[in-house]
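Can't attach files on this board, so I'm pasting raw text. These are the components:
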Amino acid sequence: MVEKSELLQFLRGRTENDILSLADQREAASRFNCSLRDIEEIALSHSILPRRYQRNGLDPVRQLLLFHAKVAIIGCGGLGGRVSDLLARMGVGSLFLTDPDTFNETNLNRQNFCTTETLGRYKVEVVAQELKKINPILNVTMTKGRFSEPSVSVADLIVDGLDSIGDRHHLSQLCKKHSRPLIHAAVNKWYGQIGIEQLDTELISQLFPLETQALTAPHVLSPTVALLAAMQAAEVGKLILGQDSPLTAAWLHCDLLNCEYTLF
Amino acid sequence: MQVQVKLFAFFREGRFKEEGRELADNTMVGQVVDDLGIDREEVGVLMINSRHCQFETVLQQNDILAIFPVIGGG
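---
Top answer:
Structure tokens for the assembled complex are below.
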């Protein structure tokens, strides 16, 4: 069992302006026989900021809010894969990834973790593996399959990375049942939309009035998916940090071709 | 009656961004969609004067009708 005061003394001895390097975190983990995740939690709880977060510009209290947050990524393709990457870099501490598919060649144009080397592998496996390389303190839980009720109830916030309308209606219902905010985005060609559905708001049923509508495989350009994923990650961060967002009361239509961004 | 029609995303391709239309009284939204050669299955959000509406909603003089395609990729 870690002697916390001794560990804290070690960490304080290694900090420079309350900033702690990765090398010192690793040394502390090894010397005190605990995980990097433990080190990060103790550091942030005592106003010490790991250097990796220095450029976030968030104080340790807010960084600790991100550390304790649990975010479910439902669908780990274009949107979900990139949202995961951004959240891992911001310092969100727990991600729950759900996706039934493997990477195929048509994913190479836009899915950040799809490379010629990861073709054929399960998306959640590849994403989880790469996220741990980005931020080893990350707690990643994988579900290799379709989402279900536990995929939603396990997290504080739900990110919609789906590509079917029926699934989106189902996810919306589960989020309402468990009072979880749903951060929705969708893309097609140069166009995208984003909004947040909460218990007392209707978004999915308004954007997709026909539940049974079948989509042909949409065309999606990589800048469109990157932009909308970045917006989703920003909204997740804002919700965790208690920042208000216009997207709880309106949805944003994004037209990258005409550079039109309109709230409705 | 005069109605302003706004199209969004790829519904603009080969059509227009915004256009005034002279319509018969009691024209429904769905009729405008059909006349534009837009497949109803491709339609997502429909709005009149920034409020959600349906294919069956009857248009009024000076309404602004907005038609969005379903955007569903992920």
